[in-house]
Amino acid sequence: MTVIRHHTKHEYEITDMDDKWHEWLHVLELIALFLVMLIVLGATAWWLRRWPRWLPAAETGTNLLANPGFEGTYISYAAEVRVAEGWRPAYVEGRMGRPGMGISGGSAEGMDFRRPEYKPAELAFSYRVRTGQRAQCWFSWSAIHYAGVWQRVKAQPGRWYQLSVYAQSWASNSEDPLQSGEMYLSLGIDPTGSEWLERRGIVWTGWQIVPAPQSLKQESKNWQLYRSLPVQAQGEWISVWIVSSPKWALKHGDIYVDDAALVEVELGGSCPTPVPCPTPVGDGCDYEQIRSILHDELLNREPVKWPR
């Protein structure tokens, strides 16, 4: 049996009112969503304006280094000194104690620096290579070194540059490559392009400990990223330095570096702001002061992409 229902006029009026009410609710939801978006965008713009402009920007631009991955041919500079093409060795020999950035204490005090051996790290030990086929290694046996690699790079006067590199170490008397003691690394940029490791004008980071790898596989977690202070070029050339030194004269005093980068960065003003620059050095800043203030902020964070 078919049931036919007759709707009254009153029922049609109620249905029409419900439809209009749902339309108004939809409009109100859209308005609320628009207001929330405005608040979020405004808060983001305010945060970006207040974020310190001196944070080093890992620019997406050109890596200015020659052979940043330490690949290809290794050039022999002396017996047991083989360095990746594009780079050159730098080391101190015979001096007692440690130069200006010094590490104090331990059995290394009063010992002569010795020239380390340099060689490529190969994929046969894949955990010693971050990317590609090779990484650069230098090491000392039961001795201490103050040594590293460097290169001279074309620059634009007045522009700011920052160096970065990935590193791991093996500073130990143990044969376990996953153990490491106190191997230290420092990055430097000479704004004049000098070729002398001990020149006072090189802007160095503080010494930082380089850990051992965490596994025997080719994994990114086996490497720690290190970054220099941003430095303003004073001429058409700058030189960049990657230097290590073990605290103890141990059986293994090895350092491994890979995937270096030198990029141009943007900073607000002639000095990194908001850090004051009351003690100018020539036309630049007192980098010792900047380093002491910014050390934790600059060196213990991943690269930051600063929007233009």
How would you sum up this structure, described in words?
The chain has 308 residues and is an alpha+beta fold. The protein has a domain at 74-267: Galactose-binding domain-like (Jelly Rolls, Sandwich). The protein is built from two helices and 14 strands. The protein has helices at residues 9-50, 287-299, and strands at 74-78, 81-84, 88-91, 117-122, 134-140, 147-154, 160-172, 183-190, 203-204, 208-209, 224-227, 231-232, 237-246, 252-265. Strands 3, 6, 8, 9, 10 and 13 form a six-stranded antiparallel sheet that branches. Strands 4, 5, 7, 11, 12 and 14 form a six-stranded antiparallel sheet that branches. The radius of gyration is 29 Å and the shape is elongated. Mean pLDDT is 75; it is low at 1-12, 46-60, 96-109, 269-285 and 289-308.
Brief account:
The protein is α+β, with helices and mostly antiparallel strands and 308 residues long. It has helices spanning 9-50, 287-299; strands spanning 74-78, 81-84, 88-91, 117-122, 134-140, 147-154, 160-172, 183-190, 203-204, 208-209, 224-227, 231-232, 237-246, 252-265.
